[in-house]
Amino acid sequence: MYTIDFEDFEQKIVENQVTLFILCSPHNPAGRVWTRDELQRLFDICRKHHVFVISDEIHQDLTFAGHTHIPSFTAGSYDDMMITVTAPSKTFNLAACQNSVIIIPDETLRARWDEYVMRLRVLNGNAFGYIAAEAAYSGGREWFDEVKEIVYGNYLFVKDTLAKELPEVIVSPLEGTYLCWFDMKAYVKPEEMKDFMQKKCRLALDYGDWFGGSRFASFVRMNLATSRENIEKAVTAIINGCR
Known about the structure:
- By secondary structure, the chain is an alpha/beta fold.
- It folds into two domains: 134 residues, 3-Layer(aba) Sandwich (Aspartate Aminotransferase, domain 2), CATH 3.40.640.10; 101 residues, Alpha-Beta Complex (Aspartate Aminotransferase, domain 1).
- It has nine helices and eight strands.
- Helix content is 44%, strand content 13%.
- The strands form two sheets. A four-stranded mixed beta sheet has the order 1-2-3-4, with helices on one face. A four-stranded antiparallel beta sheet has the order 5-6-8-7.
């Protein structure tokens, strides 16, 4: 499970004169749902060094196994140094509607934002998207609960099957998001990962070096928001490719 090295976090802020921190909560691709204590420690460090925070919470509804998303604004008194961005697109598959939400409780910050978007003449979003988002949040609970069951069931299938067939694959625990993050270094050389997945397994996955450079080149990210049939085909292809 991934944890935060707070000492290193603060050191990097100081050494690099950081003024803006973008938080991914829940974390993509690691699948962590940050605790209140973790958020408070991060934000206290940011306040100490005058670092503004953008909290990306687009996966906020997708939490599992008893983990609860903590909205960044509720972690403490941080309104004057933070905004939150989110959208219904991950929860309800509404990306094509092109609507997002920016939450700015602080009146001074909100006034600055309003002035900025007025200068850009960004006055309205997608009208259809407003209706779709309202309909989804008003009447989509039953559908979404079923989706969460499917996603977490797919995660358990991937984790358990790989543990049995390819026991040295390291699968990150899934606390949130619909993405499975796992390390294949015991079976595939990092420099061969893309060819292995694309040419040998015939799969379109996301590669670790996209998220953290060469040190994550042995990782891949799999989308779990699909049918069990598709997940089974993907896992079988990976297992057969390693044999």
